[in-house]
Write a structure and sequence with these properties.
The structure holds 2 protein chains of 2 kinds.
Chain A lengths: L2 H28 L1 H4 L3 H11 L3 H18 L1 H10 L1 H23 L5 H30 L19 H25 L2 H32 L5 H5 L5 H19 L3 H22 L2 E3 L8 E2 L7 H28 L12
Helix pairs in contact in A: 1-4, 1-7, 1-8, 1-12, 4-5, 4-13, 6-7, 7-8, 8-9, 8-12, 9-11, 11-12
Chain B lengths: L2 H40 L2 H35 L1 H35 L6 H30 L4 E4 L2 E4 L2 H5 L4 H30 L3 H36 L1 H8 L5 E2 L3 E8 L4 E8 L2 H7 L5 E2 L13 H30 L7 H27 L4 E3 L3 E2 L9 H32 L2 H10 L8
Antiparallel strand pairs in B: 1-2, 3-6, 4-5, 7-8
Helix pairs in contact in B: 1-2, 1-4, 1-6, 1-11, 1-12, 2-3, 2-7, 2-12, 3-4, 4-6, 6-7, 6-11, 7-8, 7-10, 8-10, 10-11
The chains are: A mainly alpha, B mainly alpha.
């Protein structure tokens, strides 16, 4: 295994970690008004993610930093290409972060509290949708010139293919959120969350099928690796198996297992796309202009040093992440302390 | 107006706004760790109350700092793509390391501090606050190391027009890393000491929450004075480093036109770029040579010996630098008077001193901001000193997009700032120790370790 391949996997792990973890709290935020019927239920929804959302979001920051460190040319081209959508995501994440804490402090049922609740929910919904749109554009390839700068427009990013990916990503995050609430809450709210999870799962299934079919028709290059090494098809097969298992568990075995299955299915879905794109990280519509794990990477020395950094740091990160979830295990309550 | 100018305004705005929240997080997390430590050692309820109260204020501040920090990490790619391509092999590493070593640490353990007090043992409370303090300070180290590399690049070679890492330790601990890190962190500690003293002084003046206000006032004054004194030495060390490695920046700070020995230390001046001299000037003869190089005989490079297209904006660099020093000095004097009154046991009667502690809050915040401004404006026209000009670093993005985003930032950050002030003031004003203690006592199933 060369260093570039290892870093491809590590960036992939960070994206998966982010999607699975922030996926559930963005999902909870998006469903805030839909599932939270009473003031107490809204408190439960907030408290279910209070201790976790922040460290979940760090996966995004670390992912951005890792991309900058390991594949700076991809970081530069992708971030400047997705200029407007990326700032939309940032504005949304900022609004959400501030609102989740400040809405507790605003007067009960005041106008300010209402506004902050909307900011929280909208700020969760927008990123959940836009990540998928970005992913779709990356999978499809974007027009880059000789200096690796994006030559398309903002509206070209909103093509049907990317929008299908956007909806797929959104449904995956909503599934994460509702499956999480399905075991983290109790009573009416729990039942509602479980029913919602099942419906969203069905939508997710249809979109997953649709996106696969769309890809087969419009971006056949994503299938090249699979046709060359059919053994790799085990990954999508496993992804589909877990997706079906998620539905089964959500329907017949309510509890945390459905959430774990949906997390694994989401991770494998991203892995399926990554294998299809390999070795490209940011494909260009002009194939010679594509940025891949070799022509866009940092020097071997930087990759090696950063690998050492990860090997030292990541075990600790996993250790206290597990500890955090252990301390705050059990049902979310309406009257938990905090801020 | 072009993409470059708008991007520079955006960077200044977002960095300046982000840094309103950062210093307090760095210093207050250390102070809260000390309160937790005292609580654990003495089992006295006052330390528990202090820690709870200040943690609440830390949380209000922390969340905006974190949220606006995401912008900082992403806009190198969005607005400064050519910079990112040029420095990616070096500059990305500290940012990634900051995420892995610092952000995860502070985010996980601050959740335990805020939400987990009733769920974890007394020891784990102390440990969590220590981890948050380490996390915030470690984060400062990584980002300041990255910034220092822009100022005094080391441990690299140029390959195909890009900087490539040759020596990680040399790049990380470049000439300005340690003085810059200590200078910024000590500045943050002073600010946090002032914050503690000011909020406590407010309560003493209002005769409210005295049980925690009195000890907090003492802590804030001691903390602030200790680090103000330390800053004299650290700031001096940092300035000496600038004199050696960024002579053009020193010339801009001190508005030195002639290369000369016995160079004067400027107290006040108005630069005249056309005439290449200062219109009004109040200066201490020979002092700059002495402070920068330890001898009045030492020669200080003047602007006339530096190509004009390598001059930083003169008035902005010089004024931000001198105002920083001035505000820092005023802060130190007020803190010192406060501490003397504290020792004499008269602080609660010295209403003017208590009020002064509140008045210096904006000054100490400005001093921290101006320090950054001096460092960053003084580095111009370089984005990486002597290697890459800011004009060559910008992204090839559309003017309209940059204009839209910048406009949104202005509106958006203004709203955030108002919300922050509103909730900070509200939390301070409405805090009632008796109520808070009754609430925290009744909550939670287990209260282990108390």
């Amino acid at each position: 295994m060369d260093l570039n391949l290892i870093w491809f996997l590590l960036v992939g792990i960070l994206i998966v970690g982010y999607s699975v973890l922030d996926g559930f709290d963005l999902g909870v935020g998006s469903l805030y008004f839909f599932l939270g019927k009473t003031a107490d239920e809204k408190k439960v929804l907030t408290h279910s993610i209070d201790p976790f959302w922040h460290s979940n979001e760090v996966w995004l920051l670390t992912g951005g930093g890792a991309l900058f460190a390991a594949f700076p040319l991809v970081y530069a081209s992708a971030f400047s290409a997705f200029y407007l959508p990326l700032f939309l995501v940032l504005f949304a994440l900022i609004a959400r972060a501030v609102a989740i804490e400040y809405k507790v402090k605003a007067g009960e049922r005041s106008g300010l509290q209402k506004a902050l609740e909307i900011a929280f929910s909208l700020g969760s919904f927008l990123p959940a949708l836009l990540y998928g749109v970005a992913m779709g554009n990356v999978a499809r390839g974007i027009p880059l010139d000789g200096a690796q700068n994006y030559t398309g427009t903002f509206f070209q990013l909103l093509n049907p293919y990317a929008l299908v990916f956007g909806l797929l990503g959104l449904s995956a995050f909503l599934l994460q959120g509702s499956a999480y609430l399905g075991f983290k809450t109790e009573g009416d709210l729990q039942k509602r969350a479980q029913r919602t999870a099942l419906k969203i799962w069905l939508v997710f299934l249809i979109l997953y099928l649709g996106a696969t079919l769309f890809s087969y028709l419009s971006t056949p290059q994503l299938f090249a690796n699979y046709l060359q090494y059919p053994i790799l098809l085990l990954i999508p097969a496993l992804s589909w198996l877990l997706t079906l298992l998620t539905g089964h568990l959500l329907r017949y075995k309510p509890g945390s297992k459905g959430f774990l299955a949906s997390s694994a299915a989401l991770g494998l879905m991203i892995l399926t796309l990554a294998v299809g794109m390999f070795p490209n990280l940011l494909p260009a519509t002009n194939p010679n202009g594509s940025l891949n794990i070799y022509n866009a990477a940092s020097s071997p020395l930087t990759l090696k040093i950063m690998l050492i950094v990860v090997c030292i740091g990541l075990p600790f990160v996993l250790l206290y992440t597990v500890y955090l979830y252990y301390v705050f295990h059990g049902k979310a309550k309406a009257d938990a302390g905090g801020y | 107006m072009d993409v470059l100018l708008l991007s520079r305004i955006q960077f200044a705005l977002t960095a300046g706004f982000h840094y309103i929240y950062v210093p307090l997080t760095i210093g207050l997390s250390v102070l809260i760790f000390l309160m937790e430590l005292r609580r654990h050692q003495t089992k006295r309820v006052v330390y528990d109350q202090m820690s709870r109260f200040w943690t609440k204020l830390l949380a209000i501040n922390f969340v905006i700092g974190v949220a606006t920090g995401i912008t900082m990490e992403f806009q190198f790619g969005t607005n400064w793509a050519n910079y990112s391509r040029f420095v990616g092999d070096i500059f990305g590493a500290p940012l990634a390391a900051e995420g892995i070593f610092a952000f995860f640490l502070e985010s996980a353990f601050i959740a335990l501090m805020i939400f987990g007090k009733e769920r974890i043992s007394s020891f784990m409370r102390v440990f969590s606050s220590l981890m948050v303090a380490i996390g915030t300070n470690l984060s400062a180290f990584w980002i300041l190391a990255a910034n220092s590399w822009q100022q005094t690049p080391a441990g690299y070679q140029l390959v195909d027009g890009r900087a490539q890492l040759t020596d990680f330790a040399a790049a990380l601990f470049n000439y300005s890393t340690m003085p810059r890190f200590l200078h910024a962190v000590v500045g943050a500690y002073i600010l946090s000491g002032v914050f503690l003293a000011a909020v406590s002084a407010y309560y003493v003046l209002k005769n409210k929450n005295l049980a925690i206000a009195k000890p907090s006032l003492r802590w804030g004054l001691i903390f602030g004075v200790v680090f103000s004194v330390l800053q004299i030495f650290v700031g001096h060390w940092h300035a000496k480093e600038v004199a050696v490695y960024q002579p053009a920046k020193l010339a801009a700070f001190e508005l030195q036109w002639e290369t000369q020995t016995h160079a004067p230390l400027l107290l006040f001046a108005l630069p005249d770029k056309e005439a290449q001299s200062n219109r009004i000037e109040i200066a201490v003869p020979g002092m700059l040579s002495y402070l920068a190089f330890g001898s009045t005989e030492a020669s200080v490079t003047g602007l006339r010996d530096i190509p004009e297209d390598e001059w930083a904006p003169l008035a902005a660099s010089s004024w931000s630098f001198h105002l920083m020093v001035g505000f820092g000095c005023i802060t130190a004097v007020v803190l010192l008077i406060g501490l003397i009154q504290q020792w004499r046991g008269k602080i609660e009667l010295s209403r003017r001193v208590l009020k002064a502690c509140i008045v210096i809050v904006p000054l100490v915040y400005l001093a921290n901001e101006l320090g950054w401004m001096a460092a960053e404006v003084g580095r111009q026209p370089w984005i990486v000193q002597n290697l890459l000009r800011t004009t060559d670093a910008v992204s090839a993005v559309s003017f309209a997009h940059v204009a839209i985003v910048l406009t949104l930032f202005c509106v958006y950050y203004l709203i955030l700032f108002i919300l922050f002030l509103y909730f900070m003031m509200k939390s301070i004003r409405n805090f009632n120790l008796a109520e808070a203690s009754a609430n925290s006592g009744g909550k939670g199933k287990s209260r282990r370790g108390k």
